[in-house]
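Hey, can you fold this?
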Amino acid sequence: MTWMRFSAPTGPGISRCRWPARRGAVVVATASPRDHELAHKLGAAVVVDQTAAGWPDQVRKVTDGGPEKVLACSASSLPGAARAARDDAIIATPVKAELPEADRVRWETYECQPSGSRLIRMAPRFDDGSLSVHVSAMYYWQDAAQAHRALEQYDIPGEVVLIVDDDLAATLEV
């Protein structure tokens, strides 16, 4: 199975590249050129430059007609996802936006509701290394406005952490 992940090095993309690869899927991801190495480390077999003109056609070419399963996590990636996917592909998205018309694909929307019990069930994956979090930057809570500006101004691969307790941060070695 070919599995496509758009904008792989974003927060949602980091964990969603590894799981399909570990289950035998060939993961193809999109990322800006500076994030290609990270996308490969996350499990992508092929990374396509999402800033290049015609990238959906390139995805269809490297996947022999387009991926069967697609995860699109940003509104800007939805039209390209529809063009890149093979006929009868399933495109899952948490995005609250108007979905592009695409008679040849099936859109599946889902809610990303936080859940403590799901988080607890993920703990063994952190322990065995099959799931990890890429932290790009850390800010003290007093600098939250600066952290927010950085998120708005830059395409940050990974997560930004706010430190709210110095003792806890030291215990967690952050």
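Oh, and this one too while you're at it.
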Amino acid sequence: MSFLKPRLGDIPFYCDIDELLYVGGTATNLVKQVKRCLHEISESHNKIYLAYSGGMDSAFTLRVLSETKIDNIIPCYGVFNSNGVSTGCKDTDRAMRYANKLGYEPKVVPIEIDKKVIDEAWEITEKYDITCHVTAIREVWRLRFDEHFIMSDSSFCDLSTWSGPHKEQDRFHITNSNFLPLENATDVFGMDRDVFCSFISPFFLKRAKIDLSPFDNSVHYGYPFKPNGFDGKLWKWLLYLEAYPDMAEVFFKFPTMYNDESNRPYSEFINFQRKINQEKAFGWFRVKGTELNENTFSDLIINKEIN
């Protein structure tokens, strides 16, 4: 379920939106809209898993959930192992502590990244034209379940300033890694226009004004402190922290998966995804047929009174 209509495959791809957007990005409105969506999802399924990574997005969704009386949404945490050793999850303990503090004991489900998993990940990337190895392997993990899943993915310029050769650092980028056919999952951030627009804050519209001139964009500074990556997420994090200052406990997110050269199928899969034409990984939003950019956003993002 999503009001976003991605057209993957083309370079660049477009994400079509049929309605005008509006500036709805206040902490109060964001909480209100996500809470509404969680209630709607909970009423449609008996048992639901919330994909919880301990990052700011899924932690925010869990934090909103903690203020409801919903009892059929269970946080689920994936551990991705290579040769029996976690490929990431440096912040697992922190993620668990935060969930425990909110009154949750996440279901921890490990998966061994063996040849079978990688073969399935190849099929996903080829079938859906997705270029992110993390997205593909995470999807293999998710499809091990019969239950409905809640994801916390779709938002503006997610990851677009973190990596890749794309030279136009446009603030309205989105990546194809956000879009997979979610037959048994719902992306809570892209359910409808109101929740999506609750991320469009005045700060987001001014984000391109941040001066990163001391930093060389070609240098990989490493996660999670790469300056451009910080810039790419800060507008969203500010809303989260304004709503829930205690989310400072899970500020930033270390990578979910690191490469493991000793695991040949896994390493070859990652290296291939990194070498293919990354231009197709990045796309733009098109609102009512017009590309959303610096010159058009004043016409396509309208003023609307938020109750």
